Every structure is written in C-alpha cells, then in structure tokens.
Amino acid sequence: MLRSPQEGSPAAAPVTARVLSVNIGTARASEHTDADGGMTGIGKRPVNGPVAVTAPGPKGTGGSGLAGDFIGDLRHHGGDEQAVYAYAREDLDRWQRELGRELPGGVFGENLTTQGIDVSEVRIGERWRIGPDLVLQAASPRIPCRTFAGWLQEQAWVKRFTRAAAPGAYFRVIEPGEIRAGDRIEVLHRPDHEVSVAFFFRARTTEPELRPRLMAAGDALSGEELDYARRWAADPS
C-alpha cells in the first residue's frame, strides 16, 4: 500500500525507522469471537513507559509476547510464532483516508505501530533490534478474521484488507527486552530471498501462482506457514 514518490518530485527527507507506539489490549466482550468466554483483546491502546517483551510459549498455551497484553483465542492467536504484531503508521494513514475515519495506533490490533519502515515488505526471517536488547524475527503475515472485521465494523472488511495485501507482520522473540515508544528499529539481518510477509500473504490468498516460490524462505517460516509451503511445493493447486 505504500506509494513511491512521483517521478520528478523532490526527494523526501529520510525517516528513521522507529516505534511510534507500543499498544496493549485488555479483555473486552465481543460477539465476533469464538474464544471461550467471548473475550478479545483486539482493540489495543498505546501505553507509556517500557514494556517487557518475551517469548510467550507455544500456541495454545502462550499468549502475547508483551507483558499485560490480552489474547482471547489462544487456539488461533498468540504463541511464540505470533508473539508480536507490527503494522506501519503509513498503511494506517492510507486506510484512514480510504475509510474516512481516525485510526489511532493499536486499532488494527497491532502491538507496535511503526514509522519509516514498510512492515509488509519485511522478509520472512528478517531480524530487527528494537531498543537496546530486544531482537525480533519476522515469521508470518496477519490473516484477517471475523473478529477483526467485527471490531472495525467496515463493510466487506476481510475482502478489502485481503485485496490491499498490506497485512503487517507477526514476529517471534529471539532475544527478550524492554521497548517503549520512540525506540529505533535497526534491521540486523535481511535474507536474500524474495519472500516478504506480503508475498506470502498474496500466495496464500489471491495469487496461488506464487506458491511454488515460498520454500525459498525455508525454515524461517513459522510452523503453520512452513507446512503450507511444503504442501504447495508438492502441489501448487
């Protein structure tokens, strides 16, 4: 969804990649979730001060990687492969213009609202350092669900989000640490394959012809996505 400057236009000043806000969700009732108890933490809000980030444990038992962040449906969300979800402020701004409504940091359920880096073009296996200690590794794209659609209350939201192919990225925690708003994002390692989270998202949803190329990301894929890639390598249909 990010647009390049028009040809001949003045070059924009470089923006240091950073975390604009760290967002935490609290439990709230929702009729759009299948979680036991009908609770969701999708509506996240920015918090002040440092937040501890650690690997939460396997899906099904581990929730969010951020201390204090609620995950309602542990069967489908959270765990080590979805410990931290990041979304770009630039993409939120694009949606804000399209939807004609304010979209504050955290409204898409993201833990990190970023600036100055195209989160959806992060490559599977890419590593970021945020703040002095935390190291994250990109694992998979976000796949929209009915809880997301119900929360935003936008018509045909899953189809619109899918068509835009700017899913944001889930990260696993490689080295724990504390983060806060304003922390710089440093790319420690960018793999030389082509499989970004947006590439995988398009292969999984709207462009199945891309599926034979997914194994280029190899073991850097999360468990579920690696299973998909192996199956599609054998039978792309």
TrEMBL record:
Under PROSITE patterns, the record lists: MOSC
The record ties this protein, via SUPFAM superfamilies, to: PK beta-barrel domain-like (SSF50800)
Q: Which InterPro entries match?
A: Benzoxazolinone_Detox_Enz (IPR052353), MoCF_Sase_C (IPR005302), Pyrv_Knase-like_insert_dom_sf (IPR011037)
N-terminal signal peptide: none
Query: Which residues lie within the region annotated Disordered?
Result: 28-49
Picking any one GO molecular function of the record gives: pyridoxal phosphate binding
Which regions form coiled coils?
none
Q: What's the protein name?
A: MOSC domain-containing protein YiiM
Q: Which residues form the MOSC domain?
A: 45-188
